[in-house]
Task: inverse folding
């Protein structure tokens, strides 16, 4: 697949060539296409060649990515084919890149498989926030369960005051009158101590 710039000033002789391959994968039971290489040609001579990595999609789909670039800050999906090649002198970046090499219908792209990886920064931030919220929820539930058990403990402790039953024979022995010089007084002979639980 060749992209020509036609008569656009100094880019008149520049051609960007995409080398696409298609393969059948039994696991997915369908054909997939992949961008194998990207070549830059100027006046019919190859100036640079880049190997493409992770640029693939089902053959009935198109492939879309916000940035396809040879720069590390854009995840470097294009890698110079050789250390001795002139490719290292070139920096290639496509913005809002979309490609489909096969099964094109009515000149429109099919549904696009996006290049966003599972561990993109936005998804990682969402996972971290979900983990924090889950920990807070678990801590709150733990505290509620703990408070419930304390309520049951206090209900058990807060039973009505308990007084030991007094026996009838103790009632007779509890007081005995003392007689002395005409004054009557009582002597407490049997003392009992009572405990009250609240």
Result:
């Amino acid at each position: 697949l060749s992209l020509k710039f036609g008569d656009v000033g100094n880019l008149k002789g520049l051609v960007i060539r995409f080398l696409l391959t298609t393969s059948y994968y039994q696991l997915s039971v369908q054909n997939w296409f992949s961008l194998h290489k990207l070549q830059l040609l100027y006046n019919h001579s190859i100036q640079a060649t880049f190997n493409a990595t992770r640029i693939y999609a089902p053959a009935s789909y198109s492939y879309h990515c916000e940035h396809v670039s040879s720069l590390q800050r854009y995840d470097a999906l294009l890698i110079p084919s050789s250390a001795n090649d002139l490719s290292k002198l070139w920096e290639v970046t496509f913005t809002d890149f979309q490609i489909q090499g096969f099964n094109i219908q009515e000149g429109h792209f099919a549904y696009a498989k996006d290049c966003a990886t599972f561990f993109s920064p936005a998804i990682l931030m969402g996972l971290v926030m979900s983990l924090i919220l889950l920990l807070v929820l678990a801590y709150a539930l733990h505290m509620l369960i703990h408070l419930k058990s304390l309520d049951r403990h206090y209900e058990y402790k807060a039973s009505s005051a308990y007084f030991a039953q007094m026996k009838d024979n103790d009632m007779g022995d509890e007081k005995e009158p003392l007689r002395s010089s005409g004054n009557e007084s009582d002597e407490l002979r049997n003392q009992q101590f009572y405990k009250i639980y609240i």
Observations:
- The chain has two helices and eleven strands.
- Residues 2-116 form one domain.
- The CA atoms of residues 48 and 84 lie 11 Å apart.
- The mean pLDDT is 77.
